[in-house]
Amino acid sequence: MRFLSIYKSPERNTPPAQEEMEKMGKLIEEGMRKGWLLATEGCLPSALGARVRISEGQYAVTDGPFSESKELVGGFAILQANSKQEAIELARDFLRVVGQGECELRQLYEAPAAQGKGAGS
Fold first, then answer.
1. d(CA 28, CA 16)
2. Is the pTM of this model over 0.90?
3. CA-CA distance, 52 to 41, in Å (whole number)?
């Protein structure tokens, strides 16, 4: 099973400290090596972003920063887990490293593998 982990936290306008980067680097390296971390990225401050909405065919664009939000998306990860409970444990491990915030976990849709297709069929 694959899960999208969306990390939300208060806005941060300073880069992580070297110690924080090292701790996160070790976690990412371990996750990739063990196969439970498939992809991950962190987000830059919301001042560099925008929100695009559509309602009744009309688009609205709001440039950052998004000061009205208490918590913003700080990054994401794609996790490989055998169960929802295992994905929850992986999110807990991540939150222990970052120290605050929350992870929203969403199981990703996976199309059934095509049967009988491939070489020689």
1. 15
2. no
3. 21
